[in-house]
Amino acid sequence: MKAIRYHANKGGDDFASVLSLDEIPAPKASPGIAIVKVAAAASNPIDYKVLGGYLKDAGWAMPLPFTVGYDYSGCIHEVDDADAAKWPVGKEVFGVQWGQGKHDEGDLPVGGTFAEYVAVPVARLSAKPEGLSHEAAAASSLVGTTAYQIVNNCAAVKKGDKVLILGGPTSVGMIAVQLCVQKGAKVYTTASPRNKEFVESLGEGITIINYRDTKWWEVTKDLDAVIDTTGEPEGWAHAQLVLKPAGNFVSIAAGDVGYDPKAHAPREFAAFHCLSNDFAVQDEIAEKLAAGTLKIPVVEPSYPFSEQGAKDMLSAQAKGSHTGKLVMKMD
């Protein structure tokens, strides 16, 4: 089969130059492992961070050569007899190829979705809802699961809370904004004038702070939670100026707050968070997308499954000038 891989880690502006379209053996099904024929795959900032080797010191497995990609949507191509009743050949599925708090988990397959076929633990699979495109499903899992966990598990947002989300137009930020609005929270979020109209479309009563000319820590106060999706410099230091004494803080992009959620009592949670795979959350996010109660825009046109397509998509991901998810179509 064909797969987008790299054989060495590389950072810098030309990191994508090490990507190649390789011919490799197709994976085989085994008990607990299904083979998915990939129809669409999405990129995320973590793709180029792992490619750059930046997570080695965090204890992440970094096998080389590495097949890029975590998000996917497609159909079951091959499955062990023990798993066939629930996951028959041809069933449309989606998910994120991810572990618990990092991308690897024991001896299970790591990443690998920028390929014609990917081996996926059946415990990570979700059935794709009817009416949801493969592109939309592929775009949903990593960012949707992350947003759900930081809103519900970390920040513990509830009705009536005052919540600031740094980076409303980011893929995780836009979902977090929608989830908080749906909970009945008062939402503040940072955005540039270019994205103001888009962020306003995410829900009623959102207060948008233009970060280009306004310091959010000077115009907010008595917040119940601050959610950082951008890794803003001194984000934790500034958050302490505007949070209630027991207000929660979570960042998915900066570690200055630390990694122990209980280290800043009386706050119940103040720490960096990395998602853990949860198929039930995948299911819930996808059902909301299919029902039209949640939106994650997919940037058009999609990228082709080719070496140049992969280089272009990850380069665009690193530049970060888009609003929505970048997706590769395999056909």
Describe the overall structure:
With 331 residues, the chain is of the alpha/beta class. It contains nine helices and 16 strands. The chain has helices at residues 45-51, 134-138, 141-154, 171-182, 196-200, 216-219, 235-242, 279-291, 307-319, and strands at 2-6, 20-23, 33-42, 66-67, 71-78, 92-96, 117-121, 126-127, 162-166, 186-191, 207-210, 223-228, 243-251, 270-272, 303-304, 327-329. Strands 3, 5, 6, 7, 8, 15 and 16 form a seven-stranded mixed sheet that branches. Strand 12 (223-228), helix 7 and strand 13 form a beta-alpha-beta unit. The protein is globular, with a radius of gyration of 20 Å. The two termini are 14 Å apart.
Short description:
By secondary structure, the protein is an alpha/beta fold. The protein has helices at 45-51, 134-138, 141-154, 171-182, 196-200, 216-219, 235-242, 279-291, 307-319, and strands spanning 2-6, 20-23, 33-42, 66-67, 71-78, 92-96, 117-121, 126-127, 162-166, 186-191, 207-210, 223-228, 243-251, 270-272, 303-304, 327-329. α3 packs across α4 and α3 (141-154) packs across α8 (279-291).
